Amino acid sequence: MTRTPNPVLDAVLTRRSAPRMTDPAPDPGDLERLVQAAATAPDHGRLRPWRLVAVTGDERARLGDALAEAADSPELARRASAKPLRAPLLLTIVHRPVPDHPKVPEWEQLAATTGMVTTLSLLLHSHGFASIWRTGAAVQAPQVHKYLGVDDDEQLLGWLYVGTRCAPDATDRRPLDTPARITWHTTGI
Ligand SMILES: Cc1cc2nc3c(=O)[nH]c(=O)nc-3n(C[C@H](O)[C@H](O)[C@H](O)COP(=O)(O)O)c2cc1C
To answer: I need a surface site. Which of 39, 50, 77, 127 has the fewest CB within 10 A?
Structure first.
């Protein structure tokens, strides 16, 4: 394999989740292009079993209200209401599997959705934007589903928070330990 600099490898190795972000986030046109590219991630049957709900501006506070309604205590509600303000753009990840597909079971469709989100986070990073995928108990909350319009046959997988990193990039590198996870079954050696 070539050891020359490679922008894809570089993007994969340097992407890190960002806990807090500020403006700018991608504008609607740029986001559309990046999502179109991310949608080319492997997807058995090309079902595209997902949709995104983009939440920006003051709507983040309304989402915060829904998160607060779903919280178990006043203190948790106070914290929940501020959560969407940690980035200028929240991409709500809605998984919408095709039920009883003759060839593509639902776990494969979930794999396609998560592959798209991971690809999107890499594309955002390669264009200078930061992101973090966040979940939590709120993904099950009826109040949150109602605000976002998540239907009963859909699954809320959380939010990709998107924006520009506030603090400098984390410099610690994760250990590249995956070779230890490869077991080879080979013949002819
Ligand atoms: C499905 C999924 C859900 C996640 N949910 C959360 C979350 O609720 N809160 C959080 O801080 N990070 C969440 N993360 C981000 C991970 O914590 C993060 O990717 C991990 O710590 C590795 O850090 P890195 O992305 O900087 O390599 C989630 C990631 C995935 C893939």
So the answer is: 127
